[in-house]
Task: inverse folding
């Protein structure tokens, strides 16, 4: 499995993913799930993937191939020249559908799961920040003020904290902490999610990735956060009134 | 779905279950998942069930039928005269296997899921408190000091808090709060788990259910706990140091 979380705030986008991929418990590898592109002062796009790795790698490779082709043929539409982030999400969905169709028959015969999801986040000049969740079938939904975050992969362990603290006006720094706390809860409870982590921030109207950080297993800041949260949670729990 | 949690402490057993059953999102009903029996000063046994309702009801009905039969034929082995809690878990497993076999062919033809799990908790005179998790296949595992709690059904949302606060020497009152907080997180994040709740406590060596309580949706104590936890969690989060 995997765990990726994307939060859309008035102040910008907070994106966090793990790097664990497994085919069974005895076959664990490390693959980044976060892929980012920038056109300085014009757009920043980040994709995060979960599900069947052969499918999601196929999607990313095809999207990058188009970017290479556009260097030769400027007519070629890519996620870096599409006229809106909505169109970027559509292109990710279309690419997903192509890859799925190519492999469906063979994978069905093997009984393999071809489930895959992609989070599409970014902003282009003249547009607002957008966040989409693209499904295996290529269809997609967008985050709104009512639902300002999306999670893919092992989403359940880390959902309660996000449900409680995230609103569209949460400051970026707080949302970054919330994403890390949500990831920390997931890491503690589920072996199929693992360090290192990839964190990216796209501040509203910056039109670039304002922060990009790989959090390694021995990252002192993440360790301090994890310890502080553990202590805070324990003391919050022990201070609960004896109601029952 | 469903959510049931059972915690085995030095001080006794804490058991909590919801009452929601659904066949699709548009077919929601209320069924107690907690079933209890007592032989005063000799034993207390509580079963909690998750999964296919026709299977779990089948298991409970057969176990009760044997108890009725034993009133006529004292040779008949039941969960109330079995010579150990281990044997009780075995009987639940055997009954599970019988019910599964009876319905497997028909259910397979319908593509229905016959997945079902049962938590078996209790104590008999001369024995210690025991907690078992019985799987669909009738096999089972026992809680130990390393893993002092079991969850069945929608277990992921409510696992992080238990992972952090439960150890075998946690007092009963604290474990009761932890079970309620774990349930509260699950209720907030997942529609397939719903009030009212059933709570039972079996204190070590009491050989009876020392507390049994149905927590209705308007239960003032549960509301206060839920609010207190929400506030404590939010303030714990907002007091985190700005590490990143």
Result:
């Amino acid at each position: 499995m995997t765990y990726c979380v994307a939060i859309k705030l008035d102040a910008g986008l907070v994106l966090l993913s793990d790097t664990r991929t497994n085919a069974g418990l005895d076959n664990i590898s490390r693959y980044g799930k976060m892929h980012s592109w920038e056109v300085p002062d014009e757009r920043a796009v980040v994709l995060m993937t979960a599900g069947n790795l052969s499918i999601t790698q196929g999607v990313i490779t095809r999207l990058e191939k188009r970017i290479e082709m556009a260097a030769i043929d400027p007519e070629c539409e890519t996620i870096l020249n599409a006229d809106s982030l909505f169109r970027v999400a559509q292109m990710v969905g279309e690419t997903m559908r192509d890859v799925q169709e190519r492999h469906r028959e063979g994978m069905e015969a093997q009984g393999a799961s071809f489930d895959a999801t992609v989070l599409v986040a970014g902003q282009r000049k003249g547009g607002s920040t957008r966040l989409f969740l693209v499904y295996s079938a290529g269809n997609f939904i967008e985050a709104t003020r009512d639902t300002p975050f999306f999670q893919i992969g092992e989403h359940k362990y880390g959902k309660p904290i996000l449900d409680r603290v995230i609103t569209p006006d949460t400051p970026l720094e707080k949302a970054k902490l919330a994403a890390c706390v949500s990831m920390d809860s997931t890491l503690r409870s589920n072996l199929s999610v693992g360090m290192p982590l990839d964190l990216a921030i796209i501040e509203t109207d910056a039109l670039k990735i304002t922060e990009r950080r790989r959090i390694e297993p021995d990252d002192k800041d993440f360790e301090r956060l994890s310890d502080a949260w553990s202590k805070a949670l324990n003391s919050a729990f022990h201070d609960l009134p004896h109601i029952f």
